[in-house]
Amino acid sequence: GAGVSQSPSNKVTEKGKDVELRCDPISGHTALYWYRQSLGQGLEFLIYFQGNSAPDKSGLPSDRFSAERTGGSVSTLTIQRTQQEDSAVYLCASSLGGELERLAGGPRGTDTQYFGPGTRLTVL
Amino acid sequence: QKEVEQNSGPLSVPEGAIASLNCTYSDRVSQSFFWYRQYSGKSPELIMSIYSNGDKEDGRFTAQLNKASQYVSLLIRDSQPSDSATYLCAVNFRAGNNRKLIWGLGTSLAVNP
User: Fold this and answer.
1) pLDDT in tens, B37-80
2) At B68, is the secondary structure helix, strand, or coil?
3) Do A115 and B104 touch (CB under 8 A)?
4) Taking 80 as the threshold, does the pLDDT of residue A109 lie above it?
5) Contacts of B101 in chain A (CB under 8 A)
6) In sequence order, what DSSP letters do the residues of chain A get, joined into one string?
7) Which of A15, A33, B62, B69 is close enough to B75 for a disulfide, judged by CB 3.0 to 4.6 Å?
């Protein structure tokens, strides 16, 4: 079946412009995650959506960053007034999610995250 | 502070040897543990997940979990040059319905022909 898809694969923008990055999770996955990874660095958590619950935005680095998830599926990460330090690979991941975990009586694969190919953002 | 720690490496092993990657975590109530592999310029891909104490084997890979000592390891037998990558350890720290994984910074593995 189809995995997590992201678009665009590459984005070059000028400082101060807004950008939108898109993530299409695996069908049926209720949890969706956004991460950022700078060159040679670890994964930096940004935001997490679980079903219809309020998203966990604790990782967003500033108010220039926002994300939404429409209809419990596709998600868009928006960066306003981009800065050079925003240059990184933005990764999206999805997992089956917490609802199925409760039915299963505990995490047995429902919290396994599957990653998309990422969007490489370069801010000039 | 919930943390996942890994030796950054690089860990260098000869082809055919066993590579041993270790990960320690700070929270005793964690339930889910994952090893991901990330090739340079690519996104992480799942290698193994483990939920119970003991060993779990999948081909050349064995994950070992010891909750009492709060560590999880990954053994790669008969290491191949294609195993050269960064290996990420991730732990699910339960907090209500939150399924957010905490990630280590990764261990770089180089398998030398």
Assistant:
1) 999 999 999 999 998 899 999 999 999 999 999 999 999 999 99
2) coil
3) no
4) no
5) 111, 113
6) ----EEE-SEEEE-TT--EEEEEEPPTT--EEEEEEE-TT---EEEEEEETTSPPB-TT--STTEEEEESTTS-EEEEE-S--GGG-EEEEEEEE--HHHHHHHTS-SSTT--EE---EEEEE-
7) B62
Q: Which of A99, A108, A112, A119 to mutate to test the interface with B (most CBs of B within 10 A)?
A: A112
What per-residue confidence (pLDDT) applies to A98? 64
Closest by CA to A55, choosing from B87, B99, B111, is B99
The model's confidence at residue A71, banded by pLDDT at 50, 70 and 90, is confident
Instruction: Pick B103's closest partner by Cβ from A42, A48, A110.
Output: A42
Average pLDDT, chain B: 91
Spatial separation of the C-alpha atoms in residues B63 and B73, rounded to whole Å? 6
pLDDT of residue A2 exceeding 90, the answer is: no
Which residues from B are below 8 Å from A112, CB to CB?
A: 34, 46, 49
Closest CA to B81 of B21, B19, B20: B19
**pLDDT at res. B31:** 79
Nearest to A53 among B45, B97, B100 (CB): B97
> Do the Cβ atoms of A112 and B46 come within 8 Å?
yes
pLDDT at B101: 86
Residues 57-86 of A with CB under 8 A from B: none
Rounded to whole angstroms, how far apart are CA atoms A34 and A44?
Answer: 9
Do B104 and A42 lie within an 8 Å CB cutoff? yes
